[in-house]
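Data deposition worksheet. Section B asks for the primary sequence of the deposited chain exactly as it was used as input, without tags or linkers unless they were present during the calculation. Section C holds the resulting structure in token form. Section D is free text for depositor observations; keep each observation to a single sentence. Incomplete worksheets are returned to the depositor.
Section A, Depositor: J.P.
Section B:
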Amino acid sequence: PRHAVSAAELETAHGVPGKYTVGLRMAEWAACDEDEDVVSMALTAVRRLVEAQGLRYEDVGMLQVGTESLLDRSKSVKSHLMALFAPHGCANVEGIDCYHACYGGTAALLACANWVESSAWDGRWAIAVCTDVSDAPKQYPFMNGAACVAMLVGPDAPLALEAGRVSHIVHEWDFYKPVGWPTMGPIVDGPGSMEVYFSCLAACQREVEARGGGTFVDAHDFLVFHLGGGPKFVRHAFESAVAAAHGEGSVGEEEVEAMFERLVAPSLRLASRIGPMHTAATYVNLASLLLHASPPVGSRIGVFSYGSGAASTMYALRVRG
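Section C:
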């Protein structure tokens, strides 16, 4: 979105000096104005992607949307995006919305990848869109943010999705938005939600290791985590991953800090100026890594995606140029 508020000014207004800038490692929070929402952001992101890549709308055969910011409990956000295709006579575009907290963007991306790899693929491109506005629950007034990402999916991609991904999906009540709830801010158990995140992270790590994929923190050149509440939360998640890989307390604080700065920190530069963004978070972090670390060809990027409730997937991307 176009607008942002300074974390330093916000913590002063809230009477909590240092909590947001130092405690949460935030610089700004992004926010939609009254004329912006998940649909307008998605329309802009898809249009820019198509134009930047020199595509025709008729070259796109699948469009999947991940969001938890519904405008309607029946009509999909994807159907709104077809307004971009209609002037070009295009309506034969597969895909619909994927809905599960912050995980919907990953579900959309995997659906696109599966289509391109399937016998149903007709040679056209797929686009995965992640678009969300994070409305803060009353007890966590700093958990606001908004973002949209559009990703082009096709053969011979510069970022290759490797085989061997694992998922961990369970039934939890750590974060939810019941029908009839007066706002889009969730009912959330903050400490409980953190524990579910860490539990899913550990479960995916164990499964990857059991399949011979090595430890998450050691088998990749860079790491991307789902953002959760913000950059400080990712630091805790990384520490949890290191402890799971090497044992609690077996890696010194200085070494953990050096590992974090090398493997993870570049992925959080954008998030520190946006804030929580639900489905878009993992892929804004991936974009931040590509912008600020410039991973060389041959690099392997480990990705952990998570959505409360709870669904998670761990996978790897190979940089091919």
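Section D:
The longest helix spans residues 190-210.
The chain is about 35% helix and 20% strand.
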